[in-house]
Design brief:
The structure is a single chain. The chain is mostly helical. Helix content is 69%, strand content 0%. It has seven helices and no strands.
Length: 153
């Protein structure tokens, strides 16, 4: 029960960090309670992966040093995937593909015992949840909170 509570807390923290990383520096940007010092893209790119992989460690620990190394490789892969919406390829913010690539960032973990199909299912889940959420959600800050929350789920 405690692990589930921590996992849900990580979902909420990731949602806040994801939004903070995409926020304007304007003082009246919503939600206004997020402080200015955290309104930087690095918060999204490098702190959301901590929520993702920290949550993973609640339920699974690498059994060898290779697993820890692969986990450390996945961290910057996810950070890099979070740094773009692939508009340089598609000419628009492609949340479907971006979500998929955030899921694929965990691919190295197959070499330490995580089933490849689990990573693929998560990547498809992120693609669908990010794409559908962004398609049907018009409020920008709720949209970003949702994508950050789904990232940890």
């Amino acid at each position: 029960m405690v692990k589930v509570a921590i996992w849900l807390l990580a979902c909420v923290v990731s949602a806040i960090l994801y939004r903070a990383g995409g926020m304007s520096k304007d003082a009246d940007a919503k939600p206004t309670w997020i402080p200015m010092w955290i309104r930087n893209s690095w918060c999204r790119d490098w702190l959301c992966p901590a929520c993702v992989y920290g949550s993973l460690l609640l339920f699974w620990q690498p059994s060898s040093s290779l697993g820890w190394i692969l986990l450390l490789i996945c961290y910057p892969l996810l950070g890099g995937a979070l740094s773009t919406y692939w508009d340089f390829v598609f000419k628009f913010d492609n949340y479907w593909f971006s979500g998929f690539m955030c899921g694929v960032a965990a691919f190295p973990l197959i070499f330490c015992g995580i089933a490849w199909w689990l990573i693929l299912v998560r990547a498809i889940f992120l693609a669908l949840s990010w794409g559908l959420w962004s398609k049907y959600q018009d409020v920008d800050y709720i949209e970003e909170f949702g994508r950050g929350f789904f990232l940890v789920i």
